[in-house]
Amino acid sequence: MALRLPLIPLLLSLSMTCHASLRQAPEPELRELLLQTVAEADSFQDRFDAEVWLLDMSTRLKRYMPATQERLTLLRLVHREASKAGLKPDLVLALIHAESHFDRFAISPAGAQGMMQVMPFWKAELGRPQDNLTDNATNLRYGCTILSFYLRKENGDLNRALARYNGSLGQHRYPAKVIGFWQDFWYVKP
Asked: Where is the signal peptide (predicted)?
């Protein structure tokens, strides 16, 4: 088996070299937070996958969520909950982008709450009125489970599953929006 060098320091230095005109030297705090986040990321196949994905997504998400610790915590939660539900984490990020622009306190005109815009009636349906849908872990668990269910119900048809998720079955605008964010901004090639 090949020896793998710690990837985060390497990626940070390469990123700094490639984008020297755009940023200062990598912050030691960011390096430590990434290392801690990788160590706590239990939904990845291995440490290398965790380092690559977290650094890549953290860079993409920074414009919407500037606080490093908050960003890395969210990414770890997204990866965990998406993986549990059998979803691609980058698809979940695209859905969050479309639904709330990463605002955990977002409330839609219909009353949907949190990053994934979950309807509060689900709490009553599950007998869990105490659940807080603005808590990212709770919101992601509900949202990923709902989307995964609709994907199975629609036999893998992502357009129909997204339309069901949004309550707009038969319309194409919402699925096109999510898929557009996914393809243009969040998609990770296998």
From this structure: 1-20
